[in-house]
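Q: I'm teaching a short session on how sequence maps to structure, and I want students to see two examples side by side rather than one. Could you give me a first protein with its sequence written out and its structure tokens following it? Keep the formatting plain so it prints cleanly on a handout.
A: Of course. Example one:
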Amino acid sequence: MTPAERIALSVFHRMDPERAHGLSLAALRMGLGPKPGPVTSDRLRVDLAGMALANPIGLAAGYDKNAEALRPLSRTGFGFLEVGAATPKPQPGNPKPRLFRLTADHAVINRFGFNNDGAPLIAARLAQAPTDIPRGLNLGANKTSDDRAGDYARVLEKAGPHVDFATVNVSSPNTEKLRDLQGKAALEDLLGQVNAANAKLDRPVPIFLKIAPDLTDGDISDIAAVAVSAQLSGIIATNTTLDRTGLTDLQAPETGGLSGRPLFEKSTRVLAKLSDATNGAMPLIGVGGIASADDVMAKIQAGATAVQLYSAMVYQGLSLIPALAHGLDDLLSQGGYANIRDAIGTDRARWLT
């Protein structure tokens, strides 16, 4: 972390978290963020569902919800970006306060509720801001919609021409009954509609499914089977958790989805179980609790082709991103791996017990 970044984080942590979030995006738009460009090497380059990544470190959805800082974020060291979630119509989300820093636990709780500017405006911003690295959009449904499955297809129809991939998000805990769409029958219907919308695009894009960490082994098996049957391009494991086990921060009882360090083990176990259930049939993206190069390596060895993070930036800043990439490169070299592909799933069994 640079001295300037340390000072900025100190100032941000004295503010309301949502205000600090907005100011960090404003700072990026003003050109104040780091600009190392994508960190890469022969060991770090990897193919993710047909997308050539300079490195496997991605930005998780939720930070740049409205695609306002695509270009500056693309220069901070990431190998790929995900923005959103976007819904067909703009919506304000849940009442404030709705974002909480659990400093004692290096965690974050949010209950935003898919607050966003709506797919038409987000699609316009994507069209106006090409990037040198792949970027995707997290698809969501409006809270008041009578056809939530159809909402995902409508967002893809609007924004699909301007992204390199899209993520079906049925795992946010902050929209009532959204997680019900992870059930086998509901998920088959939803993915069928999304795949039909994707097929109509001039350039169909890879479709990923983002799942919750709060799933039974039976749920994981069902989701894996549906994803393979629907010929999805991959699964993102995982979204935030409702579990509060082991937290010490006084804000732990706040409702919403928990992300950050306490999610690492739970999300990595789900990742490993998905890797086992799909048996390499599709790439997986590991998300949840990543804060070091060792964490990235653990996700890869549990079965991930790539990873995403967001919450760790709240505590370590954006300079964490190139540090993770360089650190992963070193770990791969020390392990005798010529490329990330050689390390995927090599320690999966440890997480299945």
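Q: Perfect. Now a second example for contrast.
A: Example two:
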Amino acid sequence: MNNSEVRALRKAFNSVKIRQAQNPPDNFEERKKRLTASRELCVGNEKLLAISIANLRKNGIIVHLVKDKDEAVNKILNELGDEKLVVKSKSNVTKEIELTKTLEKKGLTVVETDIGDRILQVLKASPSHPTGPVTHLSAKEIAKGLSTHYGMPIKDDPDEIVKIVREDVISNIIRAKVGITGANAITAEEGSIVMTHNEGNIYEVMRKEKHIVVTSIDKIYPDLESAMNMLKILSYNATGAIIPSFVEIISGVSKTADVEKKFIKGVHSPSEITVILVDNRRSELAKSGAKELLYCVGCGNCLIHCPMYNTIGNEFARGSHLGGKGIAYHSLYNNEKDEKLEYCLTCGKCRENCPLGIDIPEMIRRIRSTGLSSDVYYFLKSHTLWVYFQIILRLNLGSE
């Protein structure tokens, strides 16, 4: 447990809470109901998935539905061909399939273009929040690591840190011919890809000659209206803002019909778009009692309000699977009882602050308990651990 990281994490999370209090969205309860209805309709809906794929292809987009991470990586390698430089944007699905790590092992250079993810990549650190991956790192820690990587002194000033990392990212974007992004939604009715971002990097990455979108089958939405509703809820819960700076909607490659109304494709970049739709056991989970887990939109509001996560940070995580929800998913995916489930207090804060009301505590109880005595044991153990971590944290913070 790194005390400075936990302190930075709490500070960042508190700032989000303040922005949330200052920007209450209109009709939020109604929006959450609409989001729940669309998730219930779409997750595990094979017919709607087939319609989405058909409409993507109708729009001239290449689609690969892949079973697992190995197949996903192989498809991406085939799409990359002889290219040795790839620029990519933040994507939890690419983290899940360990795309960057695997491509680098194959001799490719992969550059994360999101400032936070690029810092993580350079520092070889783990993320602490799905939309704010370096929330747990102070400017001082970041500057120290970047100074070593770039071979020059960098001040622990956020403006200078962003400036240096941005210059690095832009130089690689200019040279690259292939860009990889994730997607927040795929809409069935329109066959569209929806992506949101604040930094503007996705706009640059998706405009390379070839754009590869890596996302998962649980990102299907009925239509653009339901996807936009989700984005507003995601943005508010993740950052406290009503809407992100940018929303990209892609419904095909660049084309023109200026001459005799005949469509000519590939006028500007991208001239080719490929979507890799990853299953990776989601269809199995959707048919089990864990379907509700797949409703998650990745806002991270559960982490912001989790007492244990605010005490030990991403020690309460398994790789890129963060907090109680992440550990539950990891356990179900691997069909094993992860020992980090013991950390969960089953206090219900995650459920109360989830826009979909996903009952993570109950799911964790089911995974780790076989009876009343076992449930009581885990309750007492998790609370004892939390008290212990709180005492250690306060003693250490008091000594700094």
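Q: What should students look for in example two?
A: Point them to this: The chain has two domains: 3-282, 300-399. Also worth mentioning: Residues 174 and 380 are 55 Å apart (CA to CA).
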